[in-house]
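Question thread 4412

I'm putting together a teaching handout and wanted feedback from people who do this every day. The idea is simple: show students a protein as raw sequence, then show them the structure tokens that encode its fold, then repeat with a second protein so they can compare. Below is the first pair exactly as I plan to print it.
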Amino acid sequence: MSKAVFRSLFCAIAFAAAASQAQVATAQMPSPTEKAVASAKTKADHEAIAADYDKAAAAAKVEAQKHRNLARFYHGMPVGRGEGGHGTASHCENLAKLSDQAAAEYLDLAKAHREAAADLK
């Protein structure tokens, strides 16, 4: 692969990642505020909190996929090899795992608030 083709490909992927990051950044903060959680007393309060956690889980899943895609790209590149073999691809794979874990935690929180809503009349 020529340097010009590599540079063009790298720029295109970097632009796509930046655009994806901008979308995720705006979508990633729907989780409820401390005040909303602390003051939740009604069924509607808990259902709204659960919906916010569902949105946060969806955003975390998007983030995980973005990092998996970047890891695939970096596996074939001589960029960011790092010390001890812990290079950029490993970094992206770790971030994907963490984002998957965050998504699972958000879904557990949503489930807990749905159960709390169901317990209320």
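The second pair follows. I'd like the answer to focus on this one:
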Amino acid sequence: MPGTKQPLSVLVVIHDAARNVLLLERAAHPGYWQSVTGSLEGDEVHIDAAVREVFEETGIACCASDLVDWQLSSRFEIFSEWRDRYPTGVTHNAEHFFSLCVPAETPVTLAADEHCAYRWLPWRAAAAACFSWTNRDAILMLGLASGKAPL
């Protein structure tokens, strides 16, 4: 039976003022490190999905005004192992970028069904650790923009 997941998602790069980036390790795929990501639900808009996903995946409470909307999206092919989550024939996803600056070493509470570990890394090391090229590129843009969204 085909899935119902929308091929529209958010990526939120959480970082501190020194550009250390929070990465999460996927529970079902050890070694797959990433920023906060997630698909839109129902008629949700991107900013609302970003706020929800940050809280669900990290326990960090934020509001829409805390997030920086980069006004950038990336389209990528969905890994074949995850395509059954989407309607039949869906092969690509559009991911919208946000960032969230938090105090250094902000406590993190993981969603155990999604992630098994987290770590704070300097932005270059965080970019190198990501399995997703869109996530890597977003972190590199953040780092090269001196901690501000590349608008």
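Top answer:
Good format. For the second protein you could add a caption like this: The first helix runs from residue 46 to 58. The helical segments are 46-58, 123-129, 133-144.
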